[in-house]
Amino acid sequence: DIQMTQSPSSMSASLGDRVTITCRASQDIGNYLSWFQQKPGKSPRRMIYGATNLAAGVPSRFSGSRSGSDYSLTISSLESEDMAIYYCLQSIQYPYTFGAGTKLELK
Amino acid sequence: EVQLVESGGGLVQPGRSLKLSCVASGFTFSNYGMNWIRQAPGKGLEWVAYISSGSSYIYYAETVKGRFTISRDNAKNTLYLQMTSLRSEDTALYYCARGDGYDLFDYWGQGVMVTVSS
Description:
The structure holds two protein chains of two kinds. Chain A has strands at residues 4-7, 10-13, 19-25, 33-38, 45-49, 53-54, 62-67, 70-75, 84-90, 97-98, 102-106. By secondary structure, chain A is mainly β.
């Protein structure tokens, strides 16, 4: 199975900060990488798919990038509504595997 | 408007069975692969099972293989998850989500809770 190592597991940041979350894949997954945001009591929401494609309705302050086997989700200027848990997902091979999640909190 | 609505959850004793349903609307259900994903209380997301649009391809997580069966009825726009030999570690919120491969999980249901306890 492909392991997705997500870091950090939690972080605190201030409004307006630039925030980056990273996932490293244990095998080549190409660009079959998605990012999801989950707020308490809510279903996950897709933010990025295909490593770099912004999902419909997602603010442009969110972006995805890839460097080798490292995939990043960046929020260019943090807003209060961005406080949530973020998960990465590889979908090149079954079983699909999620990262363990990053809890983003306000400093 | 795309909607996925799960049902069928509840409290069940270890070793017993339960069948979840996910009714889809707002899109052509028969064109999409579908998935079940679960989340134990306070834990992360775990992909559980996938079924292709025509039911030709089915995959399971090792944790449920041999105990859970995914199926679908395209005429009824409904996805199913038959769960047998339930264990306490199957306690989770179960979501259905559409899609596979590159462009997937753009829509999720609201989730249905399954609690396995004596």
